[in-house]
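Protocol check, entry for the methods section draft. Step 1: assemble the input record (protein sequence plus ligand SMILES). Step 2: submit for complex structure prediction. Step 3: store the C-alpha cells unaltered in the notebook. Ligand used here: zinc ion. Step 1 record:
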Amino acid sequence: MLNCLKVLASTLGGVFTGSLALVADGLDSLGNVISSFSTALFVKKALKPPDEDHPYGHVRSETLSAIITFSYLVSIMVILLHTLMERLGSSGGDLHREKRPSLRGNFHTF
Ligand SMILES: [Zn+2]
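Step 3, stored output:
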C-alpha cells in the first residue's frame, strides 16, 4: 500500500518535473508492487495439491510469476534507455546531428 503511494508520487513528480530519475524510481516501485502481487498469487497457486487437470501439481505456476516480473523489468529498461538516448540526443550528445550545426554556428561568430 505504501509502495502504491510511492509509485504515484514518484511517477507523477517525475512526469511534471521532467525528471527521468524520479520516473525510473516510480516505475521501479511499481515493479515491486507487481512482483509482490504476482508472487503472492502464483506461489499460492503453486502450493495447491495436484488435481485432474494438473497431475504433477502446480509448482510451475511459480515460473509464470518470474516471467511476469522479468518481462516488466525488461520493458521498463527498454523504455528508460530509449528515453535516455532521446534526451542525450536533444541536448547535443548526438555527435552526428547536433555537433555540426553548432560548430558551423561558432565559426560564423569569428
Ligand atoms: Zn490445476
